[in-house]
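Can you make up a protein sequence with its backbone structure tokens?

===
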Amino acid sequence: MQWTQDCTKALSMIKDRGDKKSLKSMKKKQISMLTKFSDAIRGNLTPIQRAKIVALVTIEVHARDVIDKLIKSNCNDVMGFEWLMQLRFYWEKEIDDCTVQQTNTQFRYGYEYLGNSGRLVITPLTDRCYMTLTTALHLHRGGSPKGPAGTGKTETVKDLVKLSGTT
């Protein structure tokens, strides 16, 4: 939620003030955080601590890549598709609950803890699969990823379920 809030604020600053440095400063902050995580991984950690930090690094690398993509595509508004296509988490004060949003979809977060398991590396194909599946759910349909065996279809669906806090 914090990353979503920071990106939203940066994009709003670009639109309102023309401050194009806000996303670049966010990227610097993201790189600094990744450096601290990589230093921590090199330290003496328990297996559980290492698994937590590796999962955080996976998430934060994707966040850095998204910020980089927003900069390169000159996205300067919270309504820009490059931003809307991201899976975002917001705290909605009106309903006093967390929502998961992507493109034109919105779901309440499920709060089901699935343990400290590994995270899937998010690629552009993973992002497109997430968009397709969240749109299908929004339209009260299902989704059935198609492709060769062993390409990560099941893992992608499981990761999306984990992200939405549901089982």
Remarks:
- The chain has a mean pLDDT of 90.
- Strands lie at 88-92, 97-102, 105-108.
- Helices lie at 2-17, 21-41, 47-72, 81-84, 124-138, 153-164.
- The longest strand covers residues 97-102.
